[in-house]
Write a structure and sequence with these properties.
It is built from 4 helices and 4 strands; from the N terminus they run βαββααβα. The chain has helices at residues 16-32, 63-71, 76-85, 100-131; strands at residues 2-10, 36-43, 54-60, 86-95.
Length: 132
C-alpha cells in the first residue's frame, strides 16, 4: 500500500469554487483508475499550514498503481488544472506494509471479479442454449 499525500499552495486569485471543483474531480478518479483504494480531499485544518491550505490523500494498492495513476489520461487534465491554480505543492509518498485486512480485501476483490466473469460466461452459454 502506498499513501500519496499532496498539499496545495494556491494562487491568490484561486476561488473556493475552483478548488472545490478540482477536489471533486480528484474524488472521482477512484471510479476511473484501477488501484486506488481510497481518496480523501479537503481544506487543511492545521493552523501551521504555511500557505498549503488544501490537500488530498490517495491510497494505492501498489507502487505500480501509483505510477499508472500519474500517467493515466483521466488524471492529466486534473494535473493541468492543479498546476494552473497552484503556486506550488508538496508531495509525499509513504509505503505501508499491507495489513491482514488489506490482504483479505484484495483476495475478496479477486474472488468477486472471478465470480462475475464466470456468471457472465454462464449466462452467455445459457442464452445460446435457449436460442437453439
Amino acid at each position: 500500500m502506498i499513501t500519496h499525500i499532496v498539499l496545495l499552495q494556491l494562487k491568490r486569485d484561486t476561488t473556493d469554487e475552483q478548488v472545490t471543483a478540482v477536489l471533486q474531480r480528484i474524488q472521482h478518479l477512484q471510479d476511473t483508475i484501477p488501484g486506488i483504494a481510497q481518496i480523501v480531499t479537503g481544506k487543511n485544518l492545521s493552523v501551521q499550514h504555511k500557505g498549503y491550505e488544501y490537500g488530498f490523500l490517495m491510497q494505492f494498492t501498489s507502487e505500480e498503481a501509483l505510477k499508472e495513476y500519474a500517467a493515466h489520461p483521466a488524471y492529466q487534465p486534473i494535473k493541468a488544472e492543479l498546476q494552473r491554480i497552484s503556486l506550488g505543492n508538496i508531495v509525499c509518498d509513504l509505503q505501508q506494509e499491507p495489513s491482514l485486512n488489506d490482504h483479505l480485501n484484495g483476495v475478496l476483490h479477486t474472488i468477486k471479479t472471478q465470480v462475475q466473469s464466470l456468471m457472465k460466461s454462464w449466462q452467455g452459454t445459457r442464452n445460446s442454449e435457449t436460442a437453439s
